[in-house]
């Protein structure tokens, strides 16, 4: 089962459990994390209200009235991405809408690009973005401690970009030929996810089975991305995950993706290298990686394959 880690335990136990979960799964859930539960509830509600708005209201966030596509550099201002009708490969349709926007730092121009309906969206999401960043940096410090890196190792340009993706998965008449999201690694450093209904699944690589990541009220799912896997020289695992659809119920998830500025050079942390543990990746441009990650779907780790040493 996917590990569930109580952040009210003794500090050393938390560090040990997170370290083990990161090595074995690349994904875990956290409870008793101190994030205001009322804010989690209100933010989920306002996201559901947004997707329930009339189509003409939501279309204001689609450039020229057409569904946006994920392109680099990712636009910080709010956009609505619609994938419900797009055939993404020979086997599956992808069945979701995504509202995406940056949320760090919270300058006025950025916040003013967010939806103005529902009327509480901007205020709630501003508060949510600050709190989720605090929790993410705390979790990254637990990870640093488990690895033997100095605290605050990631509190720099490696966590400069913070994107919020709210995903709406409508009821799907044919779940057997449709996925909400196909199997993938997140390309960024780390993702925190709030989910309301079942749908998220994690791939267990050693046996090829998908297991459900069951929603827990007020829990966050923590996904490690490919970038963290590289920086830790594969001491930690990334999470391969997907979302399955539901024939009768809609599902909403709120994902906060934190990752490097596009100008960053990514490489294994020198503090983790030795004669017995040489680097597994050569240094690379995060912007170049991101282009490959978005365009090359030949394998889960296609984005980092060009940089692998002695593959």
Automatic annotation (TrEMBL):
Its EC number(s): 1.14.11.11
Fe2OG dioxygenase domain sequence ranges: 160-260
Gene Ontology terms for molecular function: hyoscyamine (6S)-dioxygenase activity; L-ascorbic acid binding; metal ion binding
BP terms from Gene Ontology: coumarin biosynthetic process; response to molecule of fungal origin
Keywords: Iron, Metal-binding, Oxidoreductase, Vitamin C
InterPro entries: DIOX_N, IPNS-like_FE2OG_OXY, IPNS-like_sf, Oxoglu/Fe-dep_dioxygenase_dom, Plant_2OG-oxidoreductases
Keyword Metal-binding listed: yes
Record keyword Oxidoreductase present: yes
Leading EC class: oxidoreductase
Pfam families: 2OG-FeII_Oxy, DIOX_N
SUPFAM superfamilies reported in the protein's UniProt record: Clavaminate synthase-like (SSF51197)
Superkingdom, taxonomy of origin: Eukaryota
Family under the similarity heading: Belongs to the iron/ascorbate-dependent oxidoreductase family.
Name of the protein described by the UniProt record: Hyoscyamine 6 beta-hydroxylase
Organism: Duboisia myoporoides
């Amino acid at each position: 089962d996917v590990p569930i880690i109580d952040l009210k335990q003794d500090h050393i136990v938390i560090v040990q459990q997170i370290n083990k979960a990161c090595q074995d799964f690349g994904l875990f859930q956290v409870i008793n994390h101190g994030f205001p539960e009322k804010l989690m509830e209100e933010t989920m509600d306002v996201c559901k209200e947004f997707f329930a708005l009339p189509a003409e209201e939501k279309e204001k966030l689609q450039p020229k009235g057409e569904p946006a596509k994920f392109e680099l550099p990712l636009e910080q201002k709010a956009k609505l991405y619609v994938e419900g009708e797009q055939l993404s490969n020979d086997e599956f349709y992808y069945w979701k809408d995504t509202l995406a926007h940056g949320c760090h730092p919270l300058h006025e121009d950025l916040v003013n690009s967010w939806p103005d309906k529902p009327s509480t969206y901007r205020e709630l999401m501003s508060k949510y973005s600050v709190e989720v960043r605090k929790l993410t940096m705390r979790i990254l410090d637990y990870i640093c401690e488990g690895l033997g890196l100095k605290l605050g190792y990631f509190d720099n340009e490696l966590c400069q970009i913070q994107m919020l993706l709210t995903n709406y998965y409508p009821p799907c008449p044919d779940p057997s030929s449709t996925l909400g999201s196909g199997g993938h690694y997140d390309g960024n450093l780390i993702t925190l996810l709030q989910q309301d209904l079942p749908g998220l699944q994690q791939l267990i690589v050693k046996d090829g089975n998908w297991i459900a990541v069951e929603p827990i009220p007020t829990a966050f799912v923590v996904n490690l991305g490919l970038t963290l896997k590289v920086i830790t020289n594969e001491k930690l695992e990334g999470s391969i995950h997907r979302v399955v659809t539901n024939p009768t119920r809609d599902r909403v998830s709120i994902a906060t993706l934190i990752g490097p500025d596009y100008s960053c050079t990514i490489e294994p942390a020198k503090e983790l290298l030795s004669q017995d543990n040489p680097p597994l990746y050569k240094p690379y441009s995060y912007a170049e990686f991101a282009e490959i990650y978005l365009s090359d779907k030949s394998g889960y780790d296609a984005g980092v394959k060009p940089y692998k040493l002695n593959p």
